[in-house]
TrEMBL record:
Record-linked Pfam families: Wzy_C
UniProt name for this protein: O-antigen ligase family protein
Chief location bin: membrane
Species whose genome carries this gene: Gemmobacter fulvus
Membrane-spanning residues: 7-37, 49-67, 79-99, 105-127, 139-156, 193-210, 215-233, 239-255, 260-279, 367-389, 401-421, 427-445, 489-508, 774-795
Membrane topology according to the record: Multi-pass membrane protein
Source superkingdom: Bacteria
Length: 817
């Protein structure tokens, strides 16, 4: 096949695909959902080495919706109404980029959020009819059900070496205690996120099994629901089991047929109990300690997964406590985790992810992001609940079943997100798009099924009299926002100029900053892992009670200590410093000056090394170098005071004590030996002759023998004590010589800490950040003025709407009277 033929064939296929998509757009939507939910773009890249198709899907689908809207074949009214809210989501993230530490990570998060918001709006724009919603639900059920079936077949046959082109994977991991086993991961690299995807999808095939008009689709949906449920258990995910319980409880609350659903849940629980391994449930019960450890102060022990999870969650709580309103910034948890892990002695080997969606949002976006996210989700759930109550007289309608199922899917996602971070945000936005679209379609259908009110039968002349000319003000939030944008364009522009001007003035008033940096290299040894006298010499890495990370955490705490900063200012004789303060420097106490000076320092660990970096930022470059040099000198001095204590006095006192004890033992030995000689002299050798002498005094030989044995025992005991003391003296002398050699090496050859790199003070470039801050302030000012004006119009319109309804009610009562 020639190149020209290949190009022509590719063009024909592309044109045919475009024509099909323009006439049947749901084919493109369903194909997009299937590719997205099965993680096909990542599988093509990592499993088969092919280029990613994910970058082409979003703009293609967006262009398709735009063309069909221009051709008046689509009416994305709901998507257009949600556009300001989605813009607010993006603005909250984008405005934080100029102030974060790692701008690349923040930009990556913002760009990914922009793609997901576009996907959300496009899906909501396409899913505008009940038929399209049912087609989407069938696609999602069959897609996830097929992936789950591959995983179940893989587990049942034990052929974990076959991954079905990357769509059915498994990992041999720790389960509980000493138990290890296979955990299904499906098309994703982690079993927990695969379980979350399965649980989120599970209510949809169950709804189709009950409400679909085709018996074949009902049977297929039932099969998909069973294999999805079995796959959830085989993932051994504790969060998924918790989500199952939450979804089951929510189903009972939302259902009008509890007597029919309750037996189904009992059958499902029996199926889970029969299929699930015992270790799965033991692992679930063991996971209860996560909450206890997270809220308590006790040491983290036990399950390694729990240890890592609690470590990152504690770090997220610390970040939120330190930055409660705006957080540390989008995508900044991984950047800050190492510092918090060192500071609070957490697990350094844990993956730097919050492992909780809510803690991740709280740590990175603060209360602003948390309120925005939870407000959006809870508002959608509240509107769905009201819609279901409003249409309770026709609760058997298919769209009502689907709305209830998607509502349960969102609840399941929120429940599992308690212990899972936002690693795959596209899944969440896809399900939320289906939820919002189903809510809009169901609400419209419910309104059509609701009988007309009496006020709609009012005579035309009565309505004309009741309508006030002032009722032209907007009474919905969307119309108020649009009206505010039209009517207050000049005010919005002036607000942007005013806030941008304030930011510009603040930038110009900020003095030029200079930054100097030093890196400290550590060789941890005897000062952290001491060897007591007479103890056998060992390598510092053996039998230690603290880890290398804890040693670095100790050094970081010492560098950040109040005492080192106080010693620095004392050495400089309390100079006049350009400190950030609320009161004049003359009125500050010594403690306040030390605290203000500490804020000039940025102490961190150099990634992957036993080095700590110390950076100081100050308006004067010479003073910056002097401050940092004096600070490091004070730190070294303080460290020597704590670690490098002169032990010669200790060794001398111990040796003198042992010598005095040995001399006392020798004196006692001499006394016992003299006493023994005297006892021996009492025994006369003639006593043993056959002819006793007449003048001989009788001698008790038995008594003398007992005295000799007793004295021999005392002499032997004292000789052993003397031997012990002399052995200790020899060992202590060897230990003293070893300490002297170690001290000489530390002081003269290789100190345990030294400055490995020193960067002189250099000007900090702030032009890019200043421009970004000015633009951010201008955008924030425009949004603030627009929001205030829109709120004013909305409140005014709501008040006039109330007056209009009262007038119409009075007009209805007058003909009756």
């Amino acid at each position: 096949m020639t190149l020209v033929t290949l190009i022509i064939l590719s063009a024909v296929i592309a044109c045919g695909t475009v024509v099909l998509a323009l006439h049947w757009p749901m084919l493109a939507v369903c194909l997009f959902l299937g590719i997205t939910l099965t993680n096909t773009p990542a599988i093509l890249v990592h499993e088969h080495g092919l280029p990613s198709i994910g970058t082409l899907l979003v703009p293609t689908l967006t262009a398709l919706l735009a063309v069909r809207t221009l051709l008046r074949r689509e009416k994305p009214v709901t998507a257009l109404r949600l556009l300001p809210l989605m813009g607010l989501f993006f603005v909250v993230i984008a405005l934080r980029i100029p102030w974060v530490t790692n701008t690349e990570a923040a930009i990556s998060v913002a760009s990914e959020l922009a793609k997901n918001l576009v996907i959300f709006l496009v899906l909501v724009g396409f899913l505008t009819t009940p038929e399209r919603l049912r087609m989407t639900a069938r696609t999602m059920s069959v897609t996830i059900g097929g992936v789950a079936a591959l995983s179940v077949y893989q587990y049942a046959t034990g052929r974990f070496d076959i991954n079905f082109w990357g769509y059915a994977n498994a990992a041999y991991l720790h389960i509980q205690g000493e138990t290890h086993g296979w955990r299904l991961t499906g098309p994703l690299p982690d079993a927990n996120f695969f379980a979350q995807l399965l649980l989120t999808t599970l209510p949809i095939p169950i709804a189709l099994m009950i409400s679909d008009q085709r018996w074949a689709m009902r049977a297929l949906a039932a099969i998909c629901a069973v294999v999805i449920l079995v796959s959830i258990v085989l993932t051994n995910s504790r969060g998924a089991l918790l989500g199952l319980v939450v979804v089951a409880f929510a189903t009972l609350l939302l259902s009008h047929r509890r007597t029919f659903i309750l037996p189904g849940f009992l059958v499902g629980m029996a199926l889970v109990a029969l299929v699930g391994p015992i270790a799965t449930f033991e692992r679930a019960f063991a996971g209860i300690e996560t909450a206890r450890l997270l809220l308590g102060d006790e040491d983290i022990t036990g399950d390694p997964a729990v240890i890592q999870r609690v470590s990152v969650m504690r770090a997220a709580l610390r970040m939120f406590a330190d930055n409660p309103f705006l957080g540390v910034g989008p995508g900044q948890f991984a950047t800050h985790y190492e510092v918090y892990a060192l500071r609070y002695a957490l697990d350094m080997t844990a993956p730097p992810a919050a492992h909780s969606l809510y803690l991740e949002i709280a740590a990175e976006q603060g209360l602003v992001g948390l309120i925005l996210f939870m407000g959006f989700v809870l508002t959608a759930l509240t509107l769905a609940a009201r819609t279901l109550r409003h249409g309770h007289q026709d609760h058997a309608a298919p769209d009502t079943y689907l709305l209830r199922a998607i509502m349960l899917s969102v609840i399941g996602y929120l429940a599992t997100s308690i212990f899972l971070h936002d690693a795959y945000p596209r899944f969440f936005w896809a399900f939320m798009a289906l939820f919002i679209a189903t809510l809009a379609v169901t609400a419209a259908a419910s309104d059509k099924r609701t009988p007309l009110s009496r006020s709609s039968d009012m005579p035309e002349h009565s309505q004309e009299r009741a309508v006030s000319p002032a009722i032209r003000q907007p009474h919905t939030l969307q119309s108020a926002a649009a009206a505010a944008l039209r009517k207050s364009m000049v005010l919005i522009l002036l607000g942007a100029i005013a806030f941008g001007g304030l930011a510009t003035y603040q930038t110009l008033q900020t003095p030029v900053q200079y930054s100097t940096d030093s890196k400290l290299l550590y060789r941890f040894g005897r000062e952290y892992f001491p060897i007591t006298p007479t103890e056998v010499r060992r390598n510092w890495g053996e039998n230690i009670t603290v880890s290398l990370d804890n040693a670095l955490a100790t050094e970081l705490q010492l560098l950040s200590s109040h005492k080192v900063a106080e010693m620095t200012l004392d050495k400089l004789e309390n100079p006049s410093l350009a400190l950030e303060q609320t009161a004049p420097e003359a009125e500050m106490t010594d403690a306040e000056r030390v605290t203000a000076f500490s804020k000039l320092l940025d102490i961190r660990r150099v990634q992957g090394t036993t080095m700590l970096g110390v950076r100081l930022t100050y308006p004067d470059p010479k003073m910056a170098d002097q401050l940092l040099q004096t600070f490091l000198e004070s730190y070294m001095q303080r460290r020597d005071m704590l670690f490098h204590v002169d032990a010669s006095a200790y060794f001398s006192s111990q040796q003198e004590s042992l010598k005095a004890k040995d001399e006392a033992v020798q004196a006692e030995l001499n006394r016992l030996r003299v006493e023994r000689s005297a006892v021996e002299s009492q025994a006369d050798v003639t006593e043993w002759t056959l002819t006793p002498r007449l003048d001989h005094i009788p001698v008790d030989m038995a008594q003398i023998t007992r005295q000799l044995l007793w004295l021999d025992g005392l002499i032997d005991q004292q000789e052993k004590r003397s031997e012990v003391f002399r052995t200790r003296l020899i060992a202590l002398e060897a230990e003293r010589q070893d300490w002297e050699m170690s001290r000489a090496y530390t002081q003269l050859v290789g100190p345990t800490v030294e400055i490995a790199d020193r960067t002189p003070a250099a000007r900090v470039s702030t032009s890019t950040r200043s421009i970004a801050q000015i633009l951010s302030a201008a955008i924030a000012g425009a949004i603030l003025i627009w929001g205030v004006f829109a709120a004013h119009l909305w409140l005014r319109g709501a008040r006039e709407e109330i007056l209009f309804r009262r007038a119409r009610a009075e007009a209805n009562r007058k003909p009756d009277a």
